[in-house]
Amino acid sequence: MGKTWPHGLALLAAALLCACGQAPQPPGPADVERAERARPADARLAQRYEQACVLCHARPDSGAPLSHHAPSWSARLERGLPALVQSVQAGKGGMPAGGLCADCSPQDLESLTRFMSGPSP
User: Fold this and answer.
1) H helices within 1-121, ranges in order?
2) pTM of the model
């Protein structure tokens, strides 16, 4: 005979199952403000971020994942950072190859991707 789950555990399991497959939580005003303000600490990367990334990654209506908004990045991060950087290098969806950063090295692209997909500084 099978075991029965305690009521609280059964509710938790049901909630987790319902959450699977749902669209990520949309960014709120505080998330957008955080994305608009944040810049990499390194001045050279901050300049590249300003020129190539912020236009899309600080605007929730652009279709790009919002900088420092974990729900926007979680599915992408499951593929691993190397796959994300490869997508930036090759271009994906509306993002052109190199993510609009013609003078970014592969290391720059990786650092910028880490910055945007991580928690706000």
Assistant:
1) 7-19, 29-37, 43-48, 54-57, 70-78, 81-90, 106-117
2) 0.78
The token duo for 31 is: 């998330």
Q: In Å, how far from its chain's centre is CA 105?
A: 20
Closest CA to 57 of 101, 8, 102: 101
Task: Please report where in the chains the tokens 């420092």 appear, as a residue.
Answer: 68
Q: pLDDT exceeding 90 applies to what percent of the chain?
A: 76
Half-sphere CA count of 50, side-chain side, radius 13 A:
10
Question: What CA–CA distance (Å, rounded) separates 83 from 7?
Answer: 41
pLDDT at 120: 87
Helix (H, G, I), strand (E, B), or coil: what is residue 23? coil
- pLDDT per residue over 86-102, tens digit each? 999 999 999 999 999 99
